[in-house]
Write a structure and sequence with these properties.
Number of helices: 21
Radius of gyration: 21 Å
Strand order of the largest sheet: 1-2
Number of strands: 2
Strand content: under 5%
Mean pLDDT: 87
Length: 501
């Protein structure tokens, strides 16, 4: 396929879900859901050809896209509609397209019942597609202002998904999500303006490596950007909106939220905060490492005390994002590779976990662990899939969750010194705690005497179709991590060289 055509696929990847959202919202309910699902499928199909095995440069910058589109956007302010994809962003682009398709298709089988009549299935699909546009735009943007615009696109539609289709406490959870996210947005805007005004450009390609920014400007910008991305990820101690949002969101909302929306924060931390303000990153690295390990341990301990299924899975994300942050904090090739594969693995596995948690709650009409015992007798297939996802999430070798956690610990050890060696040891203990709370979950839910009844006990074909790709990806990424690490090797190496100065 010609290079020009592939570059314009970058625009199509954003335009197709946007048009799909308009169609889904304007057509009658069922027809709108079908149209939106077709648009999601087309987006996934368009994202796949963006891959290339050649890594070439458009200039001396550490950001060297496989393909890019660079057009005048606001000429008077020298802002450009600049999109690009490389080995850092490509896996997340495909993961976003895949999860959105699975969620849209899932609503064709069972759309959550809203509390108010306007919340029809086609409206939900339209909102999922708008969220997809925002997430994909964030991963593709190579202009800081454009990045900020796409970063904010997801706010209102995700608020609506939680507030309209959520559980009994949806109003509180939705408000908390908006307030925290707005706080992060303000800091992100100030950080972006600090960089753009000081450097005279918003081009991420030109800015990567620090450009002409002074050390004090880079430190100030990094602090602002890092806190903003920490809210979105979320990273401890700015995580408290996450459990409520996950617990109250409908199943498809939780899958998108955990699977890819959180990755906007960690991706932004790598691409923007570390890339644009490397001196700030080096200055803050020890603090980031300490916060990362605290997140791993605190998240695991809180999970050990949880009694509700979705809330436990939500808090597990805090610990997993801690491993991602630890990898980033090392500012090494191994560490950032660990963060990237950890992002992908978490999206796949936690997306599957929330699909399963939603299925269990719908059948048992509760998420309380004490009332879910004996799942293996009542629904052996559901129990087996839950066990598989839990074991993948705790980091069993051979499954996707292993590589990110292991490489983050190895990167911290390789960095050396008393601080980083201690952080690696504590993170390893946190990994053991992860195994403890997931094994506790399985003991409470799948074993023991059966409690109550499941209706229905078997799996629907739509559920199998939605979950099978995630099961396969957890196996494939676990057995062949080079599929993710190989395509990111060149860009990550260039980024690390730029950070080292």
């Amino acid at each position: 396929m010609g290079g020009v055509i592939v570059r314009w696929l970058l625009v199509a990847v954003l335009a197709v879900p946007a048009l799909g959202a308009l169609l889904a919202a304007s057509l009658p309910s069922r027809a709108g859901q079908v149209a939106g699902t077709v648009a999601a499928a087309a987006t996934l199909g368009l994202s796949v050809p963006l891959y290339t095995d050649s890594w070439f440069s458009y200039g001396p910058s550490a950001v060297r896209p496989w393909h890019e589109v660079d057009l005048n956007w606001v000429p008077g302010l020298d802002l450009r509609f600049h999109l690009g994809v490389d080995g850092v962003s490509y896996p997340l682009v495909v993961l976003t397209a895949l999860l959105t398709l699975l969620c849209c298709a899932f609503t064709l089988w069972r759309a959550p019942a809203p509390d108010s009549s306007p919340g029809k299935g086609n409206t939900l699909v339209a909102l999922l597609l708008v969220i997809e546009v925002g997430i994909l735009g964030t991963f593709l943007a190579l202009d800081l202002v454009l990045f900020f615009v796409f970063f904010e696109v997801v706010l209102l539609p995700m608020y609506a998904v939680i507030a309209v289709w959520g559980g009994d406490g949806r109003a509180h959870a939705a408000r908390k999500f908006v307030l925290y996210t707005l706080f992060g947005s303000v800091l992100l805007l100030v950080g972006v303006l600090t960089v753009v005004v000081s450097a005279g450009t918003a081009d991420i390609v030109a800015l990567t490596g620090g450009g002409e920014l002074s050390r004090s400007t880079q430190i100030a910008a990094f602090v602002l950007l890092a806190i903003a991305f920490a809210v979105k990820s979320p990273l401890w101690p700015l995580h408290t909106w996450l459990p409520d949002a996950h617990t109250q969101a409908p199943t498809v909302g939780s899958v998108i939220l955990a699977g890819v929306l959180l990755k906007m924060g960690t991706y932004g931390l790598i691409r923007v905060a570390v890339g644009v303000a490397p001196e700030g990153a080096r200055w803050a690295a020890p603090a980031l490492g300490i916060l990362a390990v605290a997140a791993i341990v605190v998240g695991s301990l809180v999970c050990l005390a949880q009694t509700e299924l979705k809330r436990l899975i939500a808090y597990s994300s805090v610990g997993h994002m801690g491993f991602v942050l630890l990898g980033i904090a090392t500012l090494t090739t191994t560490g950032i590779q660990a963060a990237l594969i950890g992002n992908v693995a978490h999206g796949v596995i936690t997306g599957l976990l929330f699909f399963l948690a939603g299925a269990i709650k719908e059948r048992a009409h509760t998420g309380e662990l004490a009332q879910l015992g004996g799942l293996r007798e009542r629904s052996p297939w559901l129990a087996g899939l839950l066990a598989f996802a839990a074991i993948a999430s705790l980091g069993l070798p051979g499954l996707a969750g292993f590589w990110g956690e292991a490489f983050a610990v190895v990167a911290s050890l390789d960095k050396g010194g008393p601080l980083w060696t201690t952080l690696a040891a504590v993170a390893a203990v946190g990994g053991a705690l992860t195994a403890a709370y997931f094994l506790r979950l399985l003991r409470r839910v799948t074993h023991g005497p059966a409690v109550g009844a499941l209706d229905p006990p078997g799996l629907a074909r739509a559920e199998v179709a939605a979950w099978a790709p995630l099961v396969l990806l957890a196996l494939i990424v676990g057995l062949l991590p080079g599929l993710v690490l190989g395509m990111a090797g060149g860009p990550v190496g260039a980024l690390v060289e730029a950070v080292r100065g």
